[in-house]
């Protein structure tokens, strides 16, 4: 997926690269013609009249400048503060453009902010720096960041597919009885036509397994036409699964005493 299509007038859409906007020459406010940096995934969006919170946009479309919902400052000096949109650190040290150490999920958060701004604000120009050069063209750092987002999208897709196959268990705990794990047709927020039984799912890199509901009948979820005939055990034989000690193999509820 990567970043969304670049706005009209971008290097990808025009015969000649756009001229970067010098935002410091256009302070926000005043006569209404100013611009401010909307620091999204690569700081290359600049928007008229400053940064609005989504709540403000719903209530008042006049375009007056204000701080956003989480209290971040209206940083109108053309800086790229991409990182702050993920970390929530709007201090002087947090308003930076280095996103190289963000996780895949954090990069997806950055992508969502970028999509929001591209959808709701007018494109003015790009901020030259880490992601765009003085000529307005993308830098290698932007290519690397887009690749990270693409990998994040793929990882997120795999997580969603796994959740459909192995929905999380319902769980409760009490000081008197200990833990109880159980499955239902909507456990884990995944609606389905089967209930399943609790199992431990071990994932590479995870310190502890977590409880998932496993289909007990039919073909395995990864069954293909070339696979051997299945034994009508659903996903029970998946190698990353284990039973809970003391819990009947086909019970939909499992108590784990203190």
TrEMBL record:
Signal sequence, start to end: none
Biased composition (Basic and acidic residues): 228-240
Name recorded for this polypeptide: Neuferricin
Region named Disordered: 1-36, 49-80, 213-248
């Amino acid at each position: 997926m990567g970043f969304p299509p670049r706005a009209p007038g971008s290097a990808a859409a025009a015969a000649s690269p756009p001229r970067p906007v010098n935002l410091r020459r256009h302070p926000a406010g005043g006569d209404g013609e100013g611009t401010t940096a909307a620091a999204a995934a690569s700081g290359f969006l600049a928007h008229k009249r400053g940064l609005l919170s989504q709540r403000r946009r719903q209530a008042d479309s006049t375009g007056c400048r204000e701080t956003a919902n989480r209290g971040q400052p209206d940083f109108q000096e053309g800086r790229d503060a991409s990182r702050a949109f993920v970390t929530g650190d709007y201090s002087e040290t947090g308003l930076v453009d280095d996103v190289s150490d963000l996780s895949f999920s954090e990069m997806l958060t950055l992508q969502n902010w970028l999509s929001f701004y591209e959808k709701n604000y007018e494109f003015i120009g790009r901020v030259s720096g880490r992601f765009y050069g003085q000529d307005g063209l993308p830098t290698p750092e932007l290519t690397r960041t887009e690749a990270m987002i693409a990998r994040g999208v793929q990882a997120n897709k795999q997580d969603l597919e796994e959740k459909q196959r192995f929905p999380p268990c319902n769980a409760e705990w009490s000081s008197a009885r200990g833990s109880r794990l159980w499955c239902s047709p909507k456990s884990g927020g995944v609606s389905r036509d089967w209930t399943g039984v609790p199992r431990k799912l071990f994932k590479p890199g995870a310190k502890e397994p977590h409880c998932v509901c496993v289909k007990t009948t039919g073909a395995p979820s990864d069954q293909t036409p070339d696979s051997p005939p299945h034994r009508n055990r659903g996903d029970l034989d998946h190698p990353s699964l284990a039973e809970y000690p003391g819990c009947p193999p086909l019970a939909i509820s499992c108590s784990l005493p203190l």
